[in-house]
Amino acid sequence: MKIIMLGAPGAGKGTQAKQIAEKYDIPHVSTGDIFRANIKEGTALGMEAKSYMDKGALVPDELTVKILLDRVAKDDCKNGYVLDGFPRTIPQAEVLDKAVAELGETIDYAINVDVPDENIIKRMSGRRACVKCGATYHIVNVPPKTEGICDVCGEKLIVRDDDKEETVKNRLNTYHEQTQPLIDYYSNKGILKEVDGTKDMKEVFDDIVKILG
Ligand code: ADP
Ligand code: AMP
Fold it and tell me: Can 123 be counted among the known catalytic residues?
């Protein structure tokens, strides 16, 4: 099963993608996580990506597409994957369609996690992230067992550099300009599914499971 998660930054794509990955036994592929891992390791790719991420802008398609195609070509993606944060532009979606079509396959679902902008700013200021294992928390909604420490791997949690209010506003603008058109793109392909992302995260997941079966 090949699934794409759509939605504004902070809509809950990663939160849901992790649970989908576990239930359907497919890898969770997040381009944001790949960039953050590279930043942490201090790679050239990480440094270049950071210059865009810190501004709330998108990393250029050329760079992002290559990373994604390399990742989904790995063995563990043979039976499908859930993409979180990719595609974010129409050209990225077109490259993905072409790559999948070359294998004689198709994307099964594009799930749009719908959350209005007003809710997003509140969510982002409370988000805490583990750069080591990719786990995500929220200081009110999903607090870790020990404050500031990842439940899964014990790493110190961070506030993402791009979760500052000013950057979140830029990211929302970027989303509306460049990523939101993907909703129509996948709707026209007949694979778009909408879920109300303002609900409690367990309810959102139940709604997604109803769609995926
Ligand atoms: P995205 O991957 O779309 O950027 P995340 O999954 O990281 O978003 O979620 C953003 C923040 O909102 C996180 O701190 C997360 O714990 C919290 N969150 C996710 N889903 C919900 C929900 N349904 N209700 C309330 N908070 C949520
Ligand atoms: P995320 O973790 O998905 O919120 O992504 C964090 C940041 O990484 C984004 O704000 C972008 O700067 C960059 N990024 C992640 N995925 C993509 C993508 N598909 N295209 C361009 N930039 C991306």
Answer: no
